[in-house]
Structure formats: C-alpha cells, structure tokens
Amino acid sequence: MRALITTGLIAGLVAVAAGWGAPFEEEDPIFPFDYEKVVLENGFTAYLIDGGAPGQIAYVSMVRTGSRDEVEAGRSGFAHFFEHMMFRGTEKYPNYDDVTASMGAARNAFTSNDMTVYYLVLSNEYLEKVMDLESDRFRNLAYDEAEFRTEAGAILGEYQQGKLSPFRYLDEAVRATAFDRHTYRHTTIGFEEDIRAMPEGYEYSLSFYDRFYRPENVVLVLAGDFDTERAKALVEEYYGGWEPGYSPPEIEPEPAQTAARDSVVEYPARTLPILSINYRAPAWSATDTMAVALEVLGRAAFGSNSDLYRELVIEERAVQFLSAGFGLARDPALVDLTTMVSDPANVEAVEARILEEVERFRTESVDPATLEATKSNMKYGFLMSLENAQGIAFSLIPFVINTGGLEAVEAYYQTLDGVTAEHLGEAARRYLVPDHRTTVTMIQAED
Amino acid sequence: MRRRPALTALALALAFAGCAGGAQPPEPANPPPTPAPEEAMDVPRLVTLPEPGSPFIAFNVWVRAGSQNDPEGKEGLAALTARVVADGSTRDRSYQEILEALYPMAAGYGYAVDKEMTTFTGRIHEDNLEAYYELFRAALLEPAFDPEDFERIKAQTLNQLERSRRYSRDEELSKELLFWMAYRGTPYEHPEEGYVQSVKSITLEDVEAFYRDHYLRDAVVVGVGGGYPDGFAERVRTDLDALPAGTVRAVPAPEPERPDGIEVLLVEKQTDATAISMGFPIDLLRGDDDFIAMLAANSWFGEHRNSFSHLYQVIRETRGMNYGDYSYIEAFPAGFATQQPRTNVARRSQLFEIWIRPIALTEPGNLHDRSLFATRAALRELDLLVEQGLDAARVEETVGFLRNYTVNWGNTISRRLAYRMDDAFYGIDQPGYLASLRPALDGLDAGTVSAAVRRHLQADGLYLVMVTQDAEGMKRKLLSGEPTAITYAGPQPDEVLAEDRQIASYPIPVTEEDITIIGIEEVFENR
After folding, report:
1. Which among B222, B176, B187 is positioned nearest to B7, based on CA atoms?
2. pTM, whole model, 2 decimals?
C-alpha cells in the first residue's frame, strides 16, 4: 500500500520564498492551489486562493481572538457572545441576515479558545457584495443595548442546549483543575454565572470590538472561483481605510506545574465513568520539531491504530472509546487521553494501564512502520479536506490562527517529514511527565 | 421531476401475497434470481456520478432495508447489523487489521440506518483507491460476524441507548419522541437504534439472519462518484452481485393518523430548559407536484439553522428566547450536527415538524411560562401561515434565497452522490432533484405556494412533545389555559409587547386525556 502513495502531492517540500503580492508557485507543495497574498498598510492580510468548484467562493474571516483573550473576571464567554453580535447589522446594512439571504449564502461562525471565524459560502457573482458587507460589519458594527440584551438570551439558550453534555462537564472540570492563571481555565461558552450576567455587559462589548476587531488581528482567506486581480483591488478598496489599533490583552501565562493534580467530578445524570488524563503541552509550532513530534506521538502511540486502542477498545472491551487529543494551541495548553470506562469498578485499572503505556513510550521508540503510517495519515487527512472552497479555507485555520499566515502549512509538513522515532521518544520524555499530569475522573452522581 | 406512483398499493399486495396460510415448500438450492418487489418500480442497480479530474472517489451502497424491517421484539436489529458490517472484522482481516490498513489512507467507511434505507458510504483519494476498495468490498461481502466484535458493538450501543440518548441532548430526544408518537402502530414507530430491552435481546444469530435476509444482490443499489477510472463502477456492481439472490419482505408504507386535536407527551426530567417538538403527518413526498412549493413555504417558515427562518426571527431574534426555531417537511435527524439537509433518509411517509431548541428558565419558576409562550408563538405562526399563505413579496424573497442557497447542498462528491441515491428512491428522473431545484423554484408564484400550504398544513391536530422539569406542573398549566407571559432583560418595542399579549394567550386546546407523562428513565426502554 505504501507504494501506492504517489509522488507529486506528498514528495519533498520546498519552502515558500516569494514576495508579498506576487503569485506563489512551488514545486511539490502540500498545499496544491495557487494563491496570492495581500497585506495592506493597516496590517490587514488577505489570501486569495484559486481552488474549488466553478462559480463558488468561500469567504472566511479569521479573527485571532477567542476565549483565551477574556482576561477580565466575570467576562468569560464574551468572545463567543461577540461573535453573535457581529450578525446584528450596521448603519449601511441594518439587517445583515436579509442581505445574506438575498445572496443565498450559507453562512455561520464559530469561536474557540484561540479564534473567532466567520464564513460565507456563496456564488462568485456576489464577490464585491460580500466584501462590502463583511468589511462593513468588521469596521462599522452597530447595535443598541436592547439588541444586545436580547441576544444574551440566545446565548443562554445555546448554553442550555449543551448543558447536559457530559463532555462539557468534563471539559469544565479539566480546565479548572489544570489551569490556575491562564484564560484557558474557562470554556469558550463561559461560566454560567457570567452568561447570566451578560445582559449587563453592553459597554464592555463595545470595548471588546474596539480592541480586538482591528485589521492587524484579522486575516481574510478567500478561496474559490474568482478573478484574483479584481479581488485584490476590492480588498484594498473595502479594507484599506480600516483604522488599525489592535490592543492585545495581557494574558497571564500559566505557571509551571510541579506536581500531578487529580480531581473527581460528578455528572448529574447517567453516565459511565470518563477518565481524562492530561499533560502540559507546548504552544503550536510549524518549525519546532518537538511540538510537531508531540502531535505525531499522540496519534501513533494512542490513536485508533495503536496497541493500547486494540487492547482496551477491541480485545478487552474495557472502555467504550479511547481518544487522544494531541492538537496544540496558540499558548501552551494540554494534550489529553480520554476514555469512557465500561465498568465503574475498573477505572483505576484502566488508568494504570494507560499510564503504563505512557511510560512505555518514554523509553521505547515507536516502530518505524507506525511512524510512517501516522505521517501518511496526517498528510492524506489534510489532502482529503481540500474538496471544496470551504474545505480549502478551513484547512488553513490552524496555520493562520497560530501564525497569522498560511505559509506555515508548508513549513509544518516539512517539519513533519523530518520527525523521527527518536524525536517521538524525546517528546514523550519531555512532555508526558508525571509531575505535569492532570487527571480528572467524571462519575455518575449518586441518586 | 416526476415521482413514481405510491408504493403502498403494490407493496401491500405483495405483502399479502406472501401471507397464504400453511407450510411453505423448502426453497430450492441456488434458486434463480427473482426480482425484488421494488424492482418492479424501476430502481436502478447502479448509480454513477462521474467527475473526471477529481482526485476523490465516493462510494454509496444502499441496502434497501431499514428499521422498518426490524422484527417485532428485535427493534434496532437493522442498525446493529449495519454496525457489525461497518465496524467489524471480515473473513480475512480482524477489525484491528482493518483499522491499521485504513489508517495511512486517512480513510474509513461509515454506515447509516434510517426507516427505509441502510447506506454504507466512504470517500478515498485516488492514490489509494484499490487498497481502500478491497477493504470496503470485503466489509460488505465477507463480514466475519465475530462474536467479540458483536459484544463490543452491542455494549457501545446499549451505553448510548441507556445513557447518552436520554441524558445528553434533549432537543434530539424530543424529535425522536415526536416521530414515535406520530407513527405508533406503524413500521416507523420505533427509533432506528431500537429500545433498550429489544437491543438487549438481539443475538449474533439475529444479526447474521438479518444480513442473510436483507443484504441481497437485488436489494442493493451501488453508487460510485468522482474521478474513478473507466469500468470501475461496473466492477463494483459486479462484485456486489456475489450477494445471494432473494427478495426482501415488502413492508407496507406507514399510514400514520393525524390526531384529532393536540396530543401531548411530557417527559419528566431534571432540567433547566425545555426541549420542544411538534408536528403531524403530511401526504407529501419529494417529487410530488406540491413539493417545491412546500419546500419554499417551509424555507420561509423555518429554514433549518438559518436566520432566514421566520420562526427563528419571532422566537430567537426578536425575543432572544433560545438558540433557534425551525420547521421541516422531510425527516431531519440530528439537526444539531449539521446545517445542510440530511441525505439518505428518504421515506414513504413524512411529518411536518417544528423544532424549538431548548427554552431556558431566566429566573426561578418561569420555565413553564417561557416554554408555553414559545409553543404558543410557534402554533400562532403556523396558524397565520395556513390562514394567510405567502404573499408575492415573500415568495420572491424565498425563491431568491433558495435558488442560491440550495447550490451548497451538493458541495461534496459524497453529498451529490447521496442525492442521486435519494433520486433513485423517489423515482426522480435525471437531471435529478438537486439540478431541478432552480428551474422549479423559478416557476413558483404566491398562488401556487399558498394553495399548497392550505392543502398540507393545519394547526388544529398535532403531536406536541416537551422534555421538561415538573411535568405535572406543566400539565396543570396546560389544562388551565391561563396566559403565559414572558419578561425581558431590557426594553422591547411596543409592537413586540403588543404581539406578546396575543401570543401569551394563544389557545392550546387540550384535555386531561390528551396529556401523557412519562419519566426519562422510561423513554425508549421497551416497545
């Protein structure tokens, strides 16, 4: 099968080396589409990518602000709340929804720790219209306090529709246990008490917009079927007058963890026990071999292809599932091994087995075949995501959010190519350290 | 587009033809293929969607059986069987070996079971086509029915039924209960995954028998799309002709009853938010003459997860009551997970459905008032729609929205292929449903749409499901008929407040006999 993994798309990578505003054409890059980069004087950056189905464009605005930026007490969830407010209109376009409906655009947005992403997928005949619309709301959003208070109700509704998710309970407990200072301590949707207090935060919301929704902090990824020269001119026309002024928050770094942490959380409904074992991780990087090696290690050692998965999930059926979350974040966060234990009496035994396997990879190398299979999985996973304009744009989100640009995609896969089994072992020894571990067990509350 | 005549009469005839009394003679070894009943309805055996130059190839294998084919007492068997096929070993490879083989390709294959359809789907990069297809083919043709796989899958399924389904997402549970209510006494009654007790009773022998009886060469439709090489699609079809001959027992199309009045199911649960679903059977299927007009009307009224939805504007946008409010003329399971319409959930019977995402309490004691206010708002809007229809401006606005919005429904090869399979189910001629939408929408006018609304919608007889706390208290409030006003965190325009007064007292006519209360632990425990 390895012989079938052919050449052009995943052969050796060539570093990007072209000037801004010039077309990029590389030999054998992993990202197979031509694109142009536009950087305005105000710091606004746009990537214009030629790819996807005829007649369609994906217009994706990536704001490098998420719940990580919610540094003030009582303001958790505000990045997400503000995402909602961005649909409330401007003086020029008082009813955003009417305009997007008239274009038949599929549109939505999402917020997470490190980002807020707004996207529309629509016919390319509306290129100028959507650029006008989107630039306008990023520059001139206008809503009154009554609208703000009304939308706070929808936020509460969103919170409620997922409130009883056991994984949200677990996530809240993991963050509260693992983090003392950094804003990763709270979830993106926020603490319930902060959500219920949101109606009173109108003035704060205006300051949020003023500080974070600035050209230096937003990257446009436009992918699809359009005239690149025309798009470049439109970017200058509609975003060129946007005043810079991004004010990055002072995010308190998380102090080093010096001892293992444990907690137990009760879920107020029925669940089998869920065990979450977490380790401190470095920040995402395209060029730090150890960071990329850690991401690879998670998949190779603990993924669906691993000995541990075979043993616990398939052969012994000791767990309902085993997942390895080794994707890194913009700031140092956590990597996790999460599992649902089939028999509540076996939680300790399952935990011990997992830790035994963690220790194994601190001393034994991942075998070469598994490493190569994992690299292939990661590369084909990336390629498989490039099916349409939206997929193309979305595939670039981690690179843009973490670095401000998509150039890092080539660097990342070049680093990946150079990762060896020795690197994986070194990453395990460096990061999967007992004193850097946080373990949370979620159990069903007694009646 | 044209839909074939209703299957009901023919299916019924065939069902009764098989019910002659007395012992049947043993079937001869290797009997000649007999056409499945549906073949008389001209379902293609191979559906292709070539897209030369695409690096992706998509598969969609439709087994013409679903939960409607579950034997009584073994509800969930079709789903469990499909999962054993998709997530189990084959004769030549253990499940682990299959995972190891798929892993470098970043690929897998999935399954879905609905009332009438079981589909196995996958997508692969052209670099890995042969290796992938070998695994996919073997899964369908050579499942090992390994006892350990079965135990693993059954345990995971029961965990989901006993815990996740009841506790982790009430807004989905309310939908499932609505369908259960509306289809009681019909083959559509039970949820596709079955009941807790029925699944507990399923054995590996049951699974093997279901596979043997339903995974038949003439009951399987093969779909291939994308940049596949010449002859490949035909090869897949030929390979699947290795399945045995035989016919699937025909299941009559369900004929659900519309309730006489409003019939209510309250599910008692510890919760701070009420999940609400309501609806009633409609005589409307894709391909019917009224379908596009109703698609437009429904889009205006409640386009799924889109602010274009009128219900969304009334309940969420104006009043900030919840995360969203939508309506449907075709089944839409797991709507929380996607913005695009579901594919491969084609059915011979549909409901008109309203989905009100959970309404939260804003202060102690106001949950029931807020929940009933939202319910009343939805009923009132439905009533207004039936009474007034859509005027020319609204039809024009809706057509303008839908003719572009629907383009995105086929944004991947897997979705485009899935729509082609649904075309086969509904007997829709080429160019197919997706391609026919724009010209059909462009042909609509207010008269056509409003007439269709009056033919298919009404607000007098429907099923209403609420998953809520203090169900007895909710029942008392419903029976009392008292107005249920809401308050706001900030000022509201006078016109909104005036409308609120009408909504708060909008009648929900119910009697004691119309309301049933069950506890959350009873939900889908038994038939």
Report:
1. B187
2. 0.91
